[in-house]
């Protein structure tokens, strides 16, 4: 197995650029988003509370350790990307051990320079595949993957939102005694975010009841898309296949007009066989937002539910992150608008894996998870469940479980 030295020929290659012209322009825009003062929101009373991001040396004390990061080894564009990467990590996690992250970033830059490669999705994916089996690069793998997803979510040139789903299925470092995919998966949809989304839906429902006309069309559209992605993990291609009649009222309680709803989900991938759509329960607070959206847009039962334009993935990404920002606390929104924080973004794949992760942790079988996520079974051809194919479409189980699952089925 090839080993890597992150500092090989770093000084000689300082002038070599891994960025193309479009990326350099994008980096100028990223530089404008970087907060000048980065606050450590959960710092202890003995920790430093902030850093000045404009400095070329970051030195601070946090969690019992002094960190010193020197950006002078990087070019101007590399420094911009490195700082953006580190600040995004701080906001998502903590500033602990930032030196390890800058080590990984330097590793990446020198890997690209020494092989005359440019910064793009395919090259970063290939690097992850190469270092995945190497035990000494487990942290490096995680840091570079975080950066890769960050670039995808930022729609950075040569990184596309449609690549995000594939990213979960590349080889990864092997964890001890881990056969299940989700034992190695970190759910990015955490409890604070879940609580924020649920409260957002509840508040929006109240506004629908009290003052429906005050809600603009875009908010109804974006919140409907977010609701379906959050509850069912639908892909953009599935959202594009929905019609208004796929939102069903299953039962109605006459005494108070309480409804139970479901959504008919199209399969994620086409097959040579014709399949009926599958019904999945839809929470009332999400369903009533979608019903209000259908009413506002005067959609008939046969109308397409969402017009997602020429690129459904980009449209869904914009809808999800715009509505999440609208649901976010006022203090956070004001901090982002004032340039004091970076805007955190999530992909539809994050929500899809959250649904699979939640079901897996609750003990659901592969068949049940496949049903909820709208996957085609391979039983048509084989009489059994091809788990290798299933994992690569949903990311729920590891290939090593194939034999055990066939035995159970």
Automatic annotation (TrEMBL):
Q: Which residues form the Tyr recombinase domain?
A: 216-375
Keyword annotations for this protein?
Answer: DNA recombination
Q: Which GO terms describe its molecular function?
A: DNA binding
GO BP annotations of the record are: DNA integration; DNA recombination
Q: In which domain of life is the source organism classified?
A: Bacteria
InterPro entries on file: DNA_brk_join_enz (IPR011010), Integrase-like_cat_sf (IPR013762), Integrase_catalytic (IPR002104)
- What's the protein called, per UniProt? Tyr recombinase domain-containing protein
């Amino acid at each position: 197995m090839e080993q890597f030295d992150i500092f090989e020929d770093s000084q000689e290659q300082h002038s070599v650029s891994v960025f193309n012209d479009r990326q350099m322009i994008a980096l100028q825009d990223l530089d404008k988003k970087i907060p000048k003062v980065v606050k450590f929101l959960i710092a202890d009373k003995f920790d430093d509370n902030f850093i000045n991001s404009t400095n070329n040396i970051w030195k601070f004390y946090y969690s019992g350790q002094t960190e010193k990061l020197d950006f002078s080894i990087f070019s101007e564009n590399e420094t911009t990307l490195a700082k953006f990467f580190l600040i995004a990590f701080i906001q998502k996690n903590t500033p602990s051990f930032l030196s390890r992250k800058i080590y990984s970033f330097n590793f990446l830059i020198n890997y690209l320079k020494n092989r005359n490669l440019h910064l793009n999705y395919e090259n970063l994916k290939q690097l992850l595949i190469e270092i995945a089996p190497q035990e000494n690069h487990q942290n490096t793998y995680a840091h570079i993957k975080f950066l890769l997803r960050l670039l995808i979510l930022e729609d950075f040139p040569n990184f596309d939102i449609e690549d995000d789903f594939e990213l979960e299925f590349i080889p990864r470092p092997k964890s001890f005694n881990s056969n299940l995919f989700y034992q190695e998966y970190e759910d990015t949809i955490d409890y604070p975010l879940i609580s924020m989304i649920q409260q957002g839906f509840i508040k929006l429902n109240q506004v629908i009841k009290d003052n429906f006309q005050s809600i603009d069309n875009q908010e109804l559209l974006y919140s409907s898309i977010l609701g379906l992605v959050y509850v069912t993990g639908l892909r953009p291609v599935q959202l594009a296949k929905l019609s208004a009649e796929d939102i069903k009222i299953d039962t109605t309680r006459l005494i108070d007009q309480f409804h139970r709803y479901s959504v008919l989900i199209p399969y994620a991938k086409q097959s040579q066989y014709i399949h009926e759509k599958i019904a999945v329960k839809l929470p009332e607070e999400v369903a009533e937002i979608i019903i209000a959206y259908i009413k506002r847009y005067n959609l008939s039962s046969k109308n397409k539910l969402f017009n997602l334009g020429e690129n459904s993935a980009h449209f869904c990404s914009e809808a999800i992150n715009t509505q999440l920002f609208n649901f976010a606390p006022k203090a956070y929104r004001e901090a982002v608008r004032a340039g004091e924080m970076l805007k955190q973004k999530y992909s539809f794949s994050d929500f899809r894996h959250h649904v699979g992760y939640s079901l897996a942790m609750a003990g659901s079988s592969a068949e049940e998870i496949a049903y909820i996520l709208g996957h085609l079974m391979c039983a048509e051809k084989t009489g059994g469940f091809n788990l290798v194919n299933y994992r690569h479409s949903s990311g729920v189980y590891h290939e090593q479980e194939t034999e055990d699952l066939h035995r159970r089925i």
